[in-house]
Design goal:
Elements: E1 15-23, E2 26-33, E3 42-46, H1 60-65, E4 69-73, H2 94-107, E5 115-119, H3 121-132, E6 140-143, H4 169-174, E7 180-182, H5 183-187, H6 192-197, H7 203-213, H8 231-234, E8 242-244, H9 249-253, H10 260-265, H11 271-284, H12 287-297, H13 302-306, E9 317-322, H14 334-342, E10 346-352, H15 359-362, H16 364-375
Parallel strand pairs: 3-4, 3-5, 5-6, 6-9, 9-10
Antiparallel strand pairs: 1-2, 2-4, 7-8
Length: 376
């Protein structure tokens, strides 16, 4: 099926699907709720990987009932949004996504949104939206991944001796026994797309296993703060984050495929919901989304991001995650730096019981209550 042959999503009560043409070179599919009443405060929801706007299906109705105009796009490289070229890796850098978000707001005739809410890599995009255009994105809620600020630039080095080149984290992980690899580096690698798209058990089974191991349903998730961030300490994380070197993501998660009984009992990700994701990724592949990881872990987007070194986020900000989500602590010290330094108007950090990485899908009632409290 052609990437441009986009089928509609299953109906979601109170939510409409529409298309915005000419947004930063894209034709963007959005889901929209609470649009019937003009003048409502708007909330922009930015999904993570490997997801799409559909991941907000349990959030949009309650936000609309609370009086918000809710907008959830399929981001660049995902779902029903078209016009992107996966061969143009640089077009997937963080600021391109932030520019997309600005274009969506503008296309809808809005001068600002009350909040931008981002999950997973969308948390990074949402944070940069507020960093760069706080006049447009008036508050921020990050989910799963805390944002600890732009990278720093070396200071007062003109007359200082040149420091030795540090050993890269990738090399440190490779030197362990057995050798390991950060999943971020795997997602940035040339083999990642084919590994997941053509997983031996099939795409549907791969996604079921991947969503499972990062959820609260997986018994191996017991996240806690890391003290040093050394390669040896990082290697204590589950293998879906710090992988066995030479083993792809499909083979990493396959042994933890839930049983048929567990799948049947899953109330947060039904077979029909999973089929929406599987059908979509069979059409688009993963490479568009994976290109952001190439930019984020490499040199393509780093210099552009460093332009904002030293800047803080000065709009009201909050952070939500699940108690079983390792994403909260995967970058050592990031949560505390976000709370005490990066965000100058931090409203709070809330960890939701019974939720893993897919917080708003796993525990929507608790999530919606916390989110609405942070939006007020």
């Amino acid at each position: 099926m052609s990437r441009d042959t986009v089928s509609s999503l299953p109906p979601i009560p109170g939510v409409r699907e529409r298309r915005l043409v000419g947004v930063n070179g894209l034709s963007v599919r959005i889901l929209e709720a609470g649009y019937e009443t003009p003048g409502r405060p708007a909330v922009l929801l930015l999904h993570g990987f490997p997801e799409m706007a559909y991941s907000w299906r349990k959030v949009m109705g309650p936000l609309a009932l609370a009086g918000y105009h809710v907008i959830a796009p399929d981001q660049r490289g995902y779902g029903g949004t078209t016009g992107w070229n996966e061969a143009d890796t640089a077009s997937f850098r963080t600021h391109a996504y932030a520019r997309d978000a600005l274009g969506i707001v503008s296309a809808l005739g809005l001068s600002s949104v009350a909040a931008v809410v981002g999950h997973d890599f969308g948390s990074m995009i949402a944070a940069y939206c507020t960093l760069v255009r706080p006049d447009v994105f008036r508050s921020l809620v990050m989910i799963s991944f805390p944002f600890d600020g732009p990278p720093t630039i070396p200071f007062d080095t003109a007359d200082a001796p040149r420091p030795p080149t540090p050993v890269s984290l990738d090399a440190q992980l490779a030197a362990l026994s057995p050798p390991r690899r950060d999943s971020m580096a795997f997602f940035a690698s040339p083999e990642a797309n084919a590994d997941m798209l053509h997983a031996p058990p099939g795409l549907h089974a791969f996604l079921r296993a991947y969503y499972h191991v990062k959820s609260a349903d997986y018994a191996g998730n017991h996240p806690h703060p890391l003290s040093t961030g050394s390669a040896a300490e990082l290697a204590t994380l589950p293998t879906y984050y710090i992988m066995d070197r030479g083993v792809g993501m499909a083979a990493t998660v396959a042994p933890d495929m839930p049983s048929p009984a567990a799948i049947a009992a899953n109330l947060w990700l039904s077979k029909a919901d999973l089929e929406v994701y599987a059908h979509t990724y069979a059409r688009t592949g993963f490479q568009g989304g994976l290109n952001w990881f190439r930019c984020h872990t490499g040199d393509i987007g780093r210099t552009e991001i460093e332009l904002f070194a030293g800047r803080t986020i000065d709009v009201p900000a909050g952070f939500i995650s699940g108690t079983a989500d390792w994403g909260t602590y995967r970058k050592p010290g990031a949560l505390e730096r976000m709370r005490t330094k990066t965000c100058t108007r931090m409203k709070g950090v809330q960890l939701i019981e019974g939720a893993g990485h897919w917080t708003q899908q796993e525990q929507p009632d608790s999530f919606n209550a916390v989110l609405l409290d942070m939006l007020t």
